[in-house]
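User: quick one, fold this
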Amino acid sequence: MAQSALLNIMINAARKAGRGLTRDFGEVENLQVSKKGPADFVSNADRRAEETIFEELHHARPTYDFLMEEGGEVKGTDGQHRWIIDPLDGTTNFLHSIPLFAVSIALERNGVIVAAVIYNPVMEELFTAERGQGAWVNNRRLRVAGRRTLADCVGATGIKRTIAERDAKEVGYVVALNTVLSGIRRTGSACTDLAWLAAGRFDLMWELGLKPWDMAAGVLLVREAGGIVTDFSGGENMFATGGLVAGNEQVQALLIRELAAVG
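Assistant:
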């Protein structure tokens, strides 16, 4: 698989941050039995990973903008490119020694995501995509699953426990779809859900309350694997609304109708 210079820069940054997270993840298991617990340690691990990614990307492309989960926006002078970074998606999993977390890096050019990396350093799975070049995991080409009825599909979602009204809506979706789908999973990592959907492990994903760094890389992965990603109304306003629905062309449309019926 041929990779552009920009994608190689992103991969190197993700791998470097991943090495630190893998080391810290080993320490978390030791801290679980302590009275204080590992929460402060994990927050520091998150920040260290973001600093590593920022330093690597800024060194390679010093004029690009940044949008980061921890560090917020950093303006460059380029005016066309922006890195969108989640250094540790799945923080609660990490905190509890569950190896479902990932580094997520996307590159946006003039408002369009053009390159993506999602990396789980514990599982050693590196998902990559470039616009028009397909999606890959560890150099294996990805395609979304081809199931055509909701009854055959496994869906992924998230419930955040943050805003009561939205939380109730998310629970309502799960209750309604539990009798429609073959199964529902909650991994605790939105970028993992999207990467696994691109790999055909999940058939569908829907979620509310997402931030751009939760979904930017995953959106490109799914699309380059042949899938469809929209907001809940079937439009392109995922970043603005925070709501996302993904799957293959057939079942994604069916899911949007089911979600609309729930209200």
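User: anything notable?
Assistant: The mean pLDDT is 93.
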